[in-house]
Amino acid sequence: MNSALPLISTAERRHRLGRRHRLAPSVRAATVPQAADCVVALHATDASTVFLSARARLTEGGPEVIERALYEDVSLVRLLSMRNTLFAVSAPLAPYVDASTARAIAAKERRTLLKHLAEDGQGLDADWLAGAEEAALAALDTAGPATGSQLSAAVPALRLKITLGRGKKYEARTGIATRVIRLLAADGRIRRDRPRGSWTSSQYRWVHTAPWPALPAAEARAELAGRWLRAYGPATEADLAWWTGWTLTDVRTALAAVGPDPVRLEDGATALVSPGDTGPEPAPEPWAALLPGLDPSGMGWADRSFHLDPAHRPALFDYAGNIGPTVWWNGEIVGGWAQRADGEVVWRLLGRPGRAAEEAIAHEAGRLADWLGAARITPRFRTPLERELVA
Is there a domain that residue 107 lies in? Predict the structure, then answer.
């Protein structure tokens, strides 16, 4: 431990989370892109997460405000990016996420698909794949937004099936459409448009779009690392490597370009903050929040011990390490919540944060129930506590 380094206490880390993640009422965001930028990116694997994460950080507005950002203004866009996971980011940040992370994922996706085509033995190759992609784009240009099923109906090539793992125990016959659509999306040539059904649906329509401007990968990684450090610092190389999915070499190169300052934490560990960001963080007013599964404030670090009691982890995470719906009080996870079939938002505390916390949490639960209205939310990744609460 280097006692000469500035100390950032656990309390100050929680102050930072409340203020910088715009969860305290006095610092909530006025726009959806601001709500995304404050945590760099919103998880989008589960359709409802984008909406509920943005809602928790906005001053006002219902689901239609977030739909407008996604599908009309296109000020918020989804990309297959960090950790090969779907995220929603503000449009100005998207080229940096694309160049730093999504490009490498798209290249790997293409190599994998071409390998499968070659192994299938139907003579499908890179030229065939290029033709199938162009036919899909032409169909979108002609008919407008379409689901995967509608694209398959319009493009004969997308109705083909290939065999994976031929001759092996796991041999399977599978359609090509989903893989071609995934590749076009990873390349930024199509994007998700309004789904069929409500905002909770994942049955997206697709639209043809222009790829993001090309940026140098190292420059883009430095930009993304700098933004992440401002949102999540103090944090470590391991935290950034986990969050991005980058190699440790890329993490260290990006951080070197940022030039972070080292600080010490209460447990004696050394962490990093943005250059000059070593001063005390003013405490926000007391605040409570009900955040959805996969919310960035719960998924931003590999080591979450400053805001989560390790004893509570089994109740709040699934077997794969995905966090479920959580209840927060002043920068600490104190419980979990769920929505029952009748629309009631129910919650359970895993500690005793006090009467003021319980009153604030009850108020937030009511506010969330009003916001949801007739919508019903079932997390894609279900956790033990969430299942218990709806049973």
Answer: yes
Q: How far apart are CA 65 and CA 63, in angstroms?
A: 5
Residue 339: inside a domain: yes
Is residue 298 classed as helix, strand or coil in its secondary structure? helix
Provide the residue type at 101 as one letter: T
Q: Which residue has the tokens 């509570």?
A: 312
Quote the CA–CA distance of 66 and 69 in Å, as a whole number: 5
Q: What is the extent of the structural domain holding 369? A: 308-390
* 308 phi and psi angles, rounded to 5 deg: -140, 120
Taking every pair of Cα atoms in the chain, the longest distance, rounded to a whole number of angstroms, is 68
> Does 1 score more than 60 pLDDT?
no
- Angle, vertex CA 292, rays to CA 291 and CA 297, nearest 5: 55
The domain tally of the chain equals 2
State pTM to two decimals.
0.95
| Token duo for residue 322 | 């995905």
Identify the CA nearest to 77 among candidates 93, 64, 89, 68.
89
The predicted-structure confidence for 301-347, as pLDDT tens digits, reads as follows 999 999 999 999 999 999 999 999 999 999 999 999 999 999 999 99
Mean pLDDT, residues 278-293:
96
204 pLDDT band (50/70/90 cuts)? very high
Q: What is the DSSP string of 34-97?
A: HHHHTTS-EE-SSHHHHHHHHHHHBSS--HHHHHHHHHTS--EEEEE-GGG-EEEEETTTHHHH
Bridge partners of residue 43, in order along the sequence:
87
The residue type found at 297 is S
Please report the pLDDT score of residue 94 as a whole number: 98
Determine the Cα–Cα distance for residues 215 and 201; give it in Å rounded to an integer. Answer: 33
